[in-house]
Every structure is written in structure tokens, then in C-alpha cells.
Amino acid sequence: MTEKLTPAVIEWMISMSRELGGALTIEEALHIILEHIKNHCPHQTLAALVVSENSNNLTIRNSRNLSYSYIKNFTRPARGSVIDRLLMKHEYVFFNDMPPSHAAYPEVKLENDFSHVCLVPIIQNQRAIGYLHCDRGASCPPFTDNEAKELLLIGYLIGQQIAKHELIFLTRHLARIDEASKALKYHAFLEQYQREAARARTYGNPLTLMLFSVDNYTQYVTTSGVAAGHALLEEIFQLIHSSVREMDIVGRFAADEFIVCLSGMNSPEAAKTMGNIRDVVQKQTALYSGTPILVSGASMTFLRKEDLNLPLEQIFAKLGSGLMLARKQGQNQVVSV
Predict the structure, then answer these.
(1) Rounded to the nearest 10 degrees, how much is the dihedral formed by the CA atoms of 147, 150, 154, 160?
(2) Which of 174, 196, 231 is the last residue before a domain boundary?
(3) pLDDT computed for residue 93 by the predictor
(4) Which helix (H) or strand (E) segment is 250 a member of?
(5) Run of H or E including 35
(6) Domain-embedded: residue 32
(7) Pseudo-torsion of CA 66, 72, 75, 78, nearest 10°?
(8) Parallel, antiparallel, or unpaired: how do β-strands 257-263 and 249-254 relate?
(9) Phi and psi at residue 252, in whole multiples of 5°?
(10) For residue 289, is pLDDT > 90?
């Protein structure tokens, strides 16, 4: 871009950048950007389209003046004479007084008919991942080359925001998820458990904690290796997760232990669920590893509000004692405390 930015454009970009500093998600960042474009650039339709890595089709990530049903059902192959210029050559394009009979009109049209349209690539790490669409009706002025270049700046800004928030999400994910088992790490589990305990105290609902131990995990790692042991932990986590409700929380408590929080579950339901988890793990891991994996468990149900006021150290000590009792009864045993 050889032309100098005007003071108005510089102020516009500074204002937008300041507001983006407080965005917590990419959806919030895109909302801020499109709102600023709306106030700066005459338009009929605004839309940020991105290419799905799984299907290589275009989807609408955020927009202005498009109906919900159109966005929900929209999908389009990421190819065509104009789309290729955007995604392959990283060029911006604009058409003024474009008739519906133009060969490229169906390729670039979204929900609304238009007279003028400008498309700029969204660039992330030197790669076009989509494009920004801005169109105008006949009553609006045609696009200028300077306007297209200003929108191109926004395309780069959107790409940077997507990269930033993807990195933030990955960092948070890695901080919360145990690498070996893919369950929540202990501190992440504890954070969610404390929210559930506060909710149970407020509404007087029962809450159950379960602690499971993989009885022959050490033996399995010794014979099969650490990598196989990690794969087994992930398999067990998936089996536990699929055996409880979507709302329930599963974390890794120790090297060979998992902890589960089940909101609104009373003692009989908890005992049934715990037995089911034990049986599912034993049966399915035998198919997975060729060796039956034995699981012991202990559960503790809080029926009264005051029970949830016990210090966590006492709660976990009782669960640990229950787990020891289950192991004394033999492998693959479960008890309630």
C-alpha cells in the first residue's frame, strides 16, 4: 500500500485496536471489527467467511444484514475464478455496477442482490483462510481502490485476531487438560467442582464425588510401555466420560486415579453409576488392550448443605479411605462412604 493513510483512517484503526484489546473470544473480536466497518464504510452486507479445514467449503463466521437461516444453511466450495484470486493469489477485488448476468455474480453473491461488491482475503500466517465480503446497493457509491486497500488492512487484522484467539484457546486448553489422559487436570477439576458444590448448596441438591483407581495400571505399563499406558488412560477417561452425563465432570486425580463429580445424583443412583463404570471399563479395555483392566472405586454423596462445607482435605481423605477399603476387598471392587 503506497498511499498514505488519512488521519481519519488512522484514528479509525487506533480506535478499533483499542477496543479489540478487551475482546475475550474471536466472536467478540469479529463483532467489534464489523461494527467499526459498519460505522466507517457504507455497505449493504458485511460478512467474514472462512474456509473449513475439514470440508474446504466456505462458512460465514460473522456478518451484518444476513438472516440467521441463511447463515445456518450457507456452504459454498472455496473455489472459483474470483475466490481463487482471493485465496490463492491474496489479491483484493471489487466490481462496480456488476449486473446479475455477470459470470462471477453467482460466485460472490450472498443473500442480497447488489450493485457493487468488494472482497479482500483474510490472511493468517501468510495463508489466506477466508475473505471479507462487503457489498452495496445501487443507491450507494461505487468502491474505490483506496477503500479496497483499507478493507485489505482489515482482512489482515481479522487474520491476526483469529490467530491470537486460537493461541489463547490452545494455551488455556493445555493448562486445563491432562496430556496423557485428556481428562481435566486436578486444579481445573477442582475449579469446576467448587462451582457445582456452590450450586448444590444454593439449591439444596445432592452431589456425588467418585474416585476410581486403575488397579493393574503399573503392571500394564511395565509390560506394555509408557506410551501404551498413556493411551490406556485416555481410553479409560473416554469410557468414564461416556458413562456419565454431559453435565458431569471427569478429572485425573493422580497417576492411576480419576475423580468424577455428578450433580443432582443421590446415593442409589451413584452406586449404580459407579458399578456401571467399573463394568464398562473392564469389558471395553479388554477389547482395546487384550488384558482386562480392573478398576476399584469409592463414592461419597452429599445430601445436606452442611456436608458440602467440609474442608476438601477431609472430603478427599474420606474418598481415599474408601478406595483403600475397596482394594482390601480385592481388585475391581466399589464402595460407598
Answers:
(1) 150
(2) 174
(3) 97
(4) strand 249-254
(5) helix 26-40
(6) yes
(7) 70
(8) antiparallel
(9) -95, 120
(10) no
What is the 8-class DSSP label of residue 184?
B
Residue 148 DSSP label: H
From its phi and psi, is residue 290 left (phi > 0), alpha (psi between -120 and 50) or beta?
Answer: left
Number of residues that make up the chain: 337
Write out pLDDT tens, residues 119-134: 999 999 899 999 999 9
Total tally of structural domains belonging to the chain: 2
Task: Identify which of 93, 143, 86, 76 has the alpha carbon closest to the alpha carbon of residue 116.
Answer: 143
Between CA 130 and CA 120 the distance in angstroms is 9
Write out the residue range of the structural domain in which residue 227 sits: 186-336
CB atoms within 10 A of CB 329: 11
Q: Are residues 191 and 323 in the same domain?
A: yes
- pLDDT exceeds cutoff 80 at 288: no
DSSP label at residue 80: S
CATH of the domain at 31: 3.30.450.40
Task: Kindly state the average pLDDT of the residues 208-222.
Answer: 93
Kindly state whether residues 16 and 140 are assigned to the same domain.
yes
**Which amino acid is present at 186?**
Y
Strand bridging mode 334-336 / 295-302 = parallel
